[in-house]
Write a structure and sequence with these properties.
237 residues; 9 helices; 6-stranded mixed beta sheet; alpha/beta; 41% helix; elongated; Uracil-DNA Glycosylase, subunit E
Length: 237
């Protein structure tokens, strides 16, 4: 697992002096004048955050058992300044193979759903999941697995600063809202999601895979999308 070393200016100076002494010893023991170094403290870990850094941390993560069965971790992808951040449950087989979110049948349907209200992962959406590695057999993620991934998603939300969050599916909505309420009661309304001291409008809807299994869910899902579009239109006036 990759680890990033954060050093103070004093620690860097001590290390540089040690290297100088070692070099002088190899030259026969004479080091000449002691060199002066002007080092600065490294940035704190939080200041190093960027989407690429988060993605690198995700890909080398070994914080839970899912790292042992995954093919590829799936950090997420999309626009850097998104109007909407779409958050699903976790990778499936296609996502595990490609390392990209929502690329299977459900992902293709999601892209069509977003396009119907003028949204796209290429231009104004970022797509991620609550967990970044596929659970075996596509089972629901276990509490310790979602906890292990929580910091990655939190960092993504705070860095991206989306205007809205569209949450796809029961597991994702229950995890983010910290509730056991069924998705049928969580959808169809806008609630406020708290992240890093900021409030983000949050809409839950059915997961696209649920729409593929049950066409009767397509109408309420469409109502959720229209609610999101209406809210976006008000913000963009």
């Amino acid at each position: 697992m990759v680890q990033y070393l954060i050093m103070t200016a004093a620690e860097k100076s001590s290390l540089a002096r040690f290297v100088d002494l070692a070099a002088a010893s190899l030259r026969g023991g004479y080091g000449g004048e002691q060199r002066e170094y002007l080092f600065a403290d490294d940035a704190a870990a939080g200041e190093l955050d960027g989407l690429e850094q988060i993605a690198a941390d995700v890909r080398c993560c070994e914080h839970c058992r899912l790292c042992k069965t995954r093919k590829n971790a799936v950090p997420g992808e999309g626009a850097l300044s998104p109007l909407v951040m779409v958050i699903g449950e976790g990778p499936g087989a296609d996502e595990d193979t490609t390392g990209r979110p929502f690329v299977g049948r459900a992902g293709q349907l999601l892209d069509k759903m977003l396009a119907a209200i003028g949204l796209s992962r290429e231009t104004n959406c970022f797509i991620a999941n609550v967990i970044k590695c596929r659970p075996p057999g596509n089972r629901d993620p276990q509490p310790d697995e979602t906890a292990a991934c929580a910091s990655f998603l939190s960092r993504q939300i705070q860095l991206l600063g989306p205007h809205f969050i569209l949450c796809a599916g029961r597991v994702a909505a229950q995890t983010l809202l910290q509730t056991a309420e069924p998705i049928g009661r969580l959808r169809g309304k806008i609630v406020e999601f708290q992240s890093g001291g900021k409030s983000i409008p949050f809409i839950a809807t059915y997961h696209p895979s649920a729409l593929l299994r049950n066409e009767e869910l397509k109408r309420p899902a469409w109502e959720d999308l229209k609610l999101l579009r209406s809210a976006l239109d008000k913000v963009m006036l």
